[in-house]
Fold this protein.
Amino acid sequence: MSEWQFIDWIRSRTDAAHKSGPKVDPVILGPGDDAGIVTLQPETIAAVDMLMDGVHFELDKIDPALAGRKALAVNLSDIAAMGARPVCALISLALPAKGGLNVGQKMMEGIMKLADEFDVSILGGDTNSWSGPAVISVTVLGEPLPGRPTIKRSGARAGDWVLVTGNLGGSLGSKRHLTFTPRVKEAAFLNTHFELTSMIDLSDGLATDASHIAHESHVAIRLDPAGIPVSPDTQNGSAAQRLAHAMTDGEDFELMFTAAPEVAREILGKQPLAGVRVTHIGECVAGNPQLTWRDGTVIEPRGFEHFLD
Ligand SMILES: [Mg+2]
């Protein structure tokens, strides 16, 4: 397959998707022209992520479709964390000169399958081949939910409760980091029905990502070690080691969010949200932006394990 044939193949797939897609497709012009055209609301939410063979995945060990899927999924997770709706994606592929088109085709299949599941259109992209390993960069454009605000990292207030979806830890060992479901539906449900004050998706691990909320919102966050939903994927080790995995492994792609106590209680009463459990893991309190356990022990974003001994 030549590069042109590859683009034609993408075009045939995306043309079909645009014709059979959601009732009102916001994409006016998909791949095949100099640029794509899409109708978006005045407030557009944009996220981009670049994944590289040998750094974020290893193509000699995994199906390239999973690498493609992940490249889109991490962006959908970021759009979800803003409380917004993903609309369309732009895909850039750098493919190895040898065997690259086959890899690219599989990557696109992984991307398009997940895009279909979330009604995300492929707006366009670019493909190049070179002497290096495969690189995928995906940009997703989204829009606010009708009549709802976007949710930032900076809105948490002292007194708010801290909640998290799903279970944490062991994502890399279990390969969940390749197959996770981005919490787009859960975020939409939460933002449609409740006033959330801040939200983030857990890509770097709860210890790091909760610190981002603390710093951006100028609050201290106190977590309850017994309340952290440790994933069964962290099978080996003591309870303390498993908790350390839940706090620092990263790539969980669950949502951590904050809300006033009365709102948080209502959310907890409504669960599971679309089958996903929500757990109350702590509170925001006035003070220096840092993470602590409820007994006051400081949780460092890095090297956290040492604090458990
Ligand atoms: Mg994020």
